[in-house]
Amino acid sequence: xxxxxxxxxxxxxxxxxxxxxxxxxxxxxxxxxxxxxxxxxxxxxxxxxxxxxxxxxxxxxxxxxxxxxxxxxxxxxxxxxxxxxxxxxxxxxxxxxxxxxxxxxxxxxxxxxxxxxxxxxxxxxxxxxxxxxxxxxxxxxxxxxxxxxxxxxxxxxxxxxxxxxxxxxxxxxxxxxxxxxxxxxxxxxxxxxxxxxxxxxxxxxxxxxxxxxxxxxxxxxxxxxxxxxxxxxxxxxxxxxxxxxxxxxxxxxxxxxxxxxxxxxxxxxxxxxxxxxxxxxxxx
Length: 284
Known about the structure:
By secondary structure, the protein is α/β, with parallel strands linked by helices. The protein has helices at 18-30, 64-72, 90-93, 142-154, 169-182, 226-235, 277-283, and strands at residues 8-13, 15-16, 34-35, 38-39, 48-52, 77-79, 115-120, 123-131, 160-165, 186-190, 200-202, 206-209, 214-217, 248-258, 265-276. The chain has a single domain, classed as Purple Acid Phosphatase, chain A, domain 2 (4-Layer Sandwich), CATH 3.60.21.10.
């Protein structure tokens, strides 16, 4: 990273899967330990923390309790996706959850909001969440909706972050370039739970990665139990997914540095590290 303390440093965590994901993010944010050679005290100085939380409560949705838990860990903004509605108590608190953003391309009468402007340490930061449409359940087109939202936010701040929760890589790349032309600062793909190695800065101004990946149990299938996943593939029959049980959890995240005046990304760094529960317990 540039080392310029005047720039805004954003840390974005990929899809958080169940308790292993929640606790891995908690430990990463609150521990001074070294992770894969990177020291929390020396190598990270994030100002603003964002996490995708649509799978945070047992793999599907987000309970109100877990929302407040994540808030207490130091997460400033929570983005989501197609599973955000899976825990029905979401409708009891979504209108008052001022750190939560749901996809903007749900119909306007759906509860919650698709974008927010956060005021943090003197910065104004716009965050937009959108769902893709390729290989996904059909929703309103995000293209014109996000275009209008970027234009509205840019009247207030040049710093705009987008979480595009989508399946198809080509759709992510094309939409990112479209949003870069409109003035987006950082564009994070989510949903596939597999971190891609294509982090870049588009046209010298928009930090991009096709998929940030996921935070959760390492031994499993994108955070879920291997045996359950195997049975579904072998039989084609529906079966309740369970969270993978593992002593080791992984953190997939991206750190981005943004110039506060221009809103342009200065640097992007992909982070992949592991947290071993047994090692953590033995060190305490």
